[in-house]
TrEMBL record:
Chaperone in keyword set: no
Native source organism of the sequence: Desulfotruncus arcticus DSM 17038
Location of the motif GXSXG: 42-46
GO MF: hydrolase activity
Pfam families: Patatin
GO biological process, one term: lipid catabolic process
Positions occupied by motif GXGXXG: 11-16
Entry keyword annotation includes Hydrolase: yes
Residues of the PNPLA domain: 7-182
Motif DGA/G positions after renumbering to this chain: 169-171
Catalytic residues (positions): S44, D169
InterPro entries, per database record: Acyl_Trfase/lysoPLipase, PNPLA_dom, Teg/CotR/CapV-like
Record keywords: Hydrolase, Lipid degradation, Lipid metabolism
Name of this chain's protein: Patatin-like phospholipase
Length: 302
């Protein structure tokens, strides 16, 4: 069978500016890079990029989406109490409506997509919380979901934004959606591809050089949730740890057919640190894509 090419995009809040800039940089070098992709997978901010590309948005448009102006717009107003999310999602929802409209469904997209989220309440006959993997493969039960509902469901980061229709950020289960994409693409009831035909480029939002420089043996809820460095450490541990683990598993499954692109950040960047966007764009501009370019030439562009 023909190659089945997947690009996956991690979650990471405003660090999606780095991802979008890397995508544009690669596509400037190889104008058919995006066109050759059969499937896009994305979590949280990565969902915006995956859905945008599947909807036909140009890489330049995605870079513009991650502007300082939009970041300031989304992460405002800020609440400072413990009884509600740090931000409401009004501005984010308005911005996404401008990009995607309100009626576009994932079944209408030209490419396959997969976007993780997590349902925190029972649904139908299911009484327990459960993961949700929105996708538009024939046979999926999620094809009628609108793009904007999928995007808001996958990016509803706990403590940052309110849940959306009782769904929260997909980063709690698959901040790096590469493994989920492989599973869906090879599922005989969904993608039906053979694993030896899968080629996957996984693009992160930058490796945060975090560590907890304290003795955590006596930590309780307060420290794990509110320690300032790293911010909200339990959430950071879950998202970054999951991303690294899924990168390892994906490489073990695909071998040379898998490539990870995730530059190290020179300093920590929080999910809502929109003032760091220029730094992220500059990092993408200066980053050496040599190994990624070699992989693309050997495995993607033929």
């Amino acid at each position: 069978m023909a190659k089945f090419r997947i690009i996956s995009f991690d979650g990471g809040g405003i660090r999606g500016a780095l991802t979008a800039s890397l995508v544009k940089k690669i596509n400037d070098l190889f104008p058919d890079f995006i066109d050759k992709a059969d499937m896009f997978a994305g979590t949280s901010t990565g969902a915006f990029i995956a859905l945008g590309l599947a909807a036909g948005l140009k890489a330049e448009k995605l870079v513009d989406l991650y502007s300082v102006k939009n970041g300031r717009y989304i992460f405002n107003p800020r609440y400072c109490d413990l009884y509600r999310p740090k931000y409401n999602n009004y501005h984010l929802k308005k911005l996404l409506k401008e990009v995607f409209g309100t009626e576009l469904k994932i079944k209408d997209l030209d490419r396959f997509v997969l976007v993780p989220s997590f349902r925190v309440n029972g649904y139908g006959s299911t009484l327990f919380w459960s993961p949700v993997f929105f996708n538009n493969f024939m046979g999926s039960g999620t094809t009628d979901a609108t793009v904007i509902d999928v995007a808001l469901s996958s990016s509803a980061a706990p403590t940052y934004f309110p849940s959306y229709e009782n769904r929260i950020d997909g980063g709690v289960i698959a901040n790096n959606p590469s493994m989920a994409a492989i599973a869906a693409a090879t599922d005989r009831y969904l993608g039906g591809r053979k694993i030896e035909d899968i080629y996957l480029l996984s693009i992160g939002t930058g490796f945060n050089c975090y560590g907890i420089n304290y003795n955590t043996a006596g930590w309780g809820k307060l420290q794990w949730l509110l320690c300032p460095s790293p911010p909200a450490p339990i959430i950071t541990v879950i998202t970054d740890g999951v991303s690294d683990a899924y990168a390892l598993f994906s490489h073990q499954m695909l071998g040379y057919r898998y490539k990870r692109l995730n530059p190290a950040l020179s300093r920590p960047v929080g999910l809502d640190s929109y003032n760091k966007i220029p730094m992220l764009v500059e990092l993408a501009h200066n980053y050496d894509l040599g190994p990624t370019i070699a992989w693309l030439k050997n495995n993607w562009l033929d």
